[in-house]
From TrEMBL:
PANTHER family: ABC TRANSPORTER PERMEASE PROTEIN MG189-RELATED-RELATED, SN-GLYCEROL-3-PHOSPHATE TRANSPORT INTEGRAL MEMBRANE PROTEIN ABC TRANSPORTER UGPE-RELATED
Sequence segments annotated as region (Disordered): 1-30
Keyword terms: Cell membrane, Membrane, Transmembrane, Transmembrane helix, Transport
Domain of life: Bacteria
Presence of the UniProt keyword Coiled coil in the record: no
Transmembrane segments annotated in the record for this chain: 44-63, 107-130, 137-161, 167-187, 213-234, 272-293
Topology relative to the membrane: Multi-pass membrane protein
Family: Belongs to the binding-protein-dependent transport system permease family.
Subcellular location: Cell membrane
Protein name as annotated: Glycerol-3-phosphate ABC transporter permease
Pfam family, one: BPD_transp_1
Length: 307
């Protein structure tokens, strides 16, 4: 006798993939960890290496100025001074009149940088907001000036300034470098990005060019102006070739040129701490100014370079 066919068994549902579900968070965290490491490697490691390359010579010079001559010229590398001393600074101050040199550098830098920034501001404003003929030709001339090395004009400037009696004078040091093509170019590029509606509204209210520059353009351009000021101050303070050529009197030399008064010590290895101390005196004021203005640099260069 034929037995009735048994009903077919229901298909068994697949087992839940518990293992695969648990693996997703681990996979995601591994990816996040990988991307973080990649970001650190691509971003921070080159930045740290660049900082070390720039900062280590300065740190080594500062430490060397606090060492004795035996620690500097020793065959065994001495990283830190055993007993820090300021004897090198005292010796350098006896050989060079640092207060007078510091006064000269401060006066030349403040007056020269101030006039440069003022001329760059007014020139860039005129190139953007004032209508006059040959504007593009003048701007092309400014771009050409950016490409000409300053050493080309040393001889003509010396003949002109010395012929006018500017040798060993403050105005003779300051006058040839008053034009700043870099500052004019950077400020012009930034002024082009300013909203024209604001200036047009001020013009309708009766504001003249000077009022628009002082009350509208300058407040909107603080980062870029700070960047131009910082670059100009550093260039004025560190300028060496032109003050060296135009000054022969020790009382009119700037700090970088005044360090040449220590040149008779260069052949003596025991004088290395003295030379390092003089170099530290030159760079510390620039580092202080940079500390106050460095937060404007990136913003200023970005605003001035991108329209």
């Amino acid at each position: 006798m034929r037995t009735p066919a048994e009903p077919a068994a229901a298909p068994t549902p697949p087992a839940p993939r518990a293992a695969s579900r648990k693996s997703h968070p681990r996979h995601g965290s591994a990816l996040d960890h990988e991307s973080t490491l990649s970001l650190i490697f691509r971003g921070y490691v080159p930045l740290i290496l660049a900082t070390l390359i720039i900062a280590l010579p300065l740190i080594w010079m500062m430490l060397g100025s606090l060492k004795t001559s035996g620690e500097v010229v020793s065959r065994d590398l001495v990283w830190l001074p055993g007993s820090p001393t300021f004897d090198a600074y005292l010796t350098a101050s006896q050989k060079v009149d640092f207060p007078r040199l510091f006064l000269n550098s401060t006066l030349v830098t403040v007056v020269g940088a101030g006039i440069k920034v003022l001329l760059a501001l007014t020139t860039a404003y005129a190139l953007v907001f004032v209508r006059f003929p040959f504007k593009r030709t003048i701007f092309a001339g400014i771009l050409v000036a950016l490409m000409v090395p300053p050493q080309v004009s040393l001889l003509p400037n010396y003949i002109l300034i010395s012929g006018l009696g500017g040798a060993n004078t403050y105005w003779g040091i300051i006058l040839p470098g008053l034009g700043t093509a870099f500052g004019t170019f950077l400020l012009r590029q930034h002024f082009l990005s300013l909203p024209a509606e604001i200036l047009e509204a001020a013009e309708l209210d009766g504001a003249g060019h000077l009022r628009r520059l002082v009350q509208i353009v300058i407040p909107l351009s603080t980062p870029t102006i700070a960047t131009v000021s910082l670059v100009t101050i550093v260039n004025e303070w560190n300028d060496y070739i032109w003050p060296l050529i135009i000054t022969t009197d020790d009382q009119m030399m700037t700090l970088p040129v005044g360090l040449t008064l220590l040149k008779n010590l260069e052949g003596d290895p025991s004088s290395y701490p003295i030379l390092m101390a003089g170099a530290v005196v030159v760079i510390v004021p620039v580092l202080i100014v940079f500390t106050f203005l460095q937060r404007y640099i990136v913003a200023g260069l970005t605003q001035g370079a991108v329209r």
